[in-house]
Design a protein that fits this description.
four-stranded antiparallel β-sheet, 8 strands
């Protein structure tokens, strides 16, 4: 674990075109080095709240349409990492720090 990282509450916000189906996972690393991996599936919009020192999200669209799938990691009200895709079956990732 890099020096100076402390645990915080983060919100993973998944948005874009309403109703886009996605699947993927998020990984949370605790300050003590413990890693939690959570598989997620759902539709936009969706929100997940996690507590940790590091957060990573990777999602794939489950549609061939070119609709928008966006993922943001927020610390408080500030977006600290984001990614988006409009590609059919596109992948999107975001990580902090």
């Amino acid at each position: 674990m890099p020096e100076g990282l402390t645990e915080s509450q983060y919100r993973i916000r998944i948005s874009g075109t309403t109703g886009i189906e996605f699947q993927g996972a998020y990984v949370v690393v605790q300050q003590n080095g413990q890693v939690a991996n959570q598989v997620i599936t759902g539709q936009t919009p969706a929100d997940y709240t996690v507590i940790g020192a590091m957060v990573s999200v990777s999602l794939q669209k489950l549609t061939i349409r070119d609709d928008l799938l966006k993922v943001e990691i927020l610390k408080g009200n500030e977006v600290v990492a984001a990614g988006e895709t409009t590609a059919p079956h596109g992948l999107v990732t975001a990580a902090f720090p």
